[in-house]
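Slide 14.
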Amino acid sequence: MVSTLASAALAQSSVGTETQPQTVDAARGPVTGSTRRIGLGGAFVAVADDTDGVAVNPASSAVRLPYSWSDWDYGVGVDVAVGSWLPKNDFYNQQNSQAPKKSGQSSALFGSLALLVNYRQLGLGLSAEALRNSASQGDQGISTKLAANYGLVHVNLAYGFLDGQLLFGAGPRLVGLSFLGNSGSSGLLRTAGVGYEAGVIVKPTGQYRAAAAVKSPINAKLPGSAGAPDSTVLVPWEVALGFAYQFGARPFNPRYQTAKELARQASSAEPTKAEIRRAEDELYRNYEQSRRWYLLVSSELSIIQGGGPVGLTGEEAMERSIISPRLGLESEVVPRYLRLRAGSYYEPPRIAGTRSRVHGTGGFDVKLFSWSIFGLLHPFDYWQLSLSADAARLYLNTSLSLGFWH
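Slide 15: predicted structure.
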């Protein structure tokens, strides 16, 4: 998107023709998001749980984790990614175009913060994603540089029916964008818009999940400058279909049970705090003693709306919807200490004349030291470091996050 704007600004500075209102395609080809999602090659719509799934599938907010034993629970997730390691980095896959202008450099920094609150089968999720892009173009002796800040906020409410085996979620997603240019005539352009998203997860007691998520398009007006007409920033609609299966004895979809329910089974009266605490200790021991090895295979088919008939530079865009198949693997190869991930996905061309790319991804979680922060994290007080990488032609992205080992 930023490269397109940079080319447009260059064209406007060198050609004195009247500009026409255009559509800026804000689709993102490479997978962004949590470290786990990147490591799985973006195949995450069915796996989606914890704070990682809030921005991917709205129904994920109602997924109760196997180590959650109370009526109320909460989660916090922070991820950071850097996509500018290569000297020739093409974040938006605009290289190798038939158009000679596409010789610029683009890079990106990504960060996300997610919050999740659960009460039994009800979940409320909030995710804020921030993506900063920079792009430069050089043509006809003129250097053009632009930077863009892209923010996307997801707010969803979800509920688990049939004892948590069928989950639905929905909510709005809000986008805000700002563009800053320094090609001789610096200026700041801002726009915002709102859309909606919904999702479903089917997770019967067993070893598989099936899911779907739909996100509506967002059309935001970008004000013109110096008498130029307004343009439109399009965040396209998306549809994701996914299926995941977990091999091994470790349960993928265990039944949600609270410590109070377990304590109540041993007594007809209302359980005391001491009885609930003993039930929590029992659930913790059962969880820790359960078989740890597993192999998770996750697949996803992402369908994204095609671009408008022309871009800001007058190039022909890909009007048809594009399809991106994705596949990911995950396993706890060293029980209680190390998880590995690997994946791959196909990035189809977004602009006429460009080539597709096949991405290879990988990542790991490693168990670190124990620190309960003065008893706040008991009993899961071991920290973990998560890293992932996504590589393709003229593209390398790395992601980092700190969390807690479960």
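Speaker note: The chain has one domain: 2-251+290-404.
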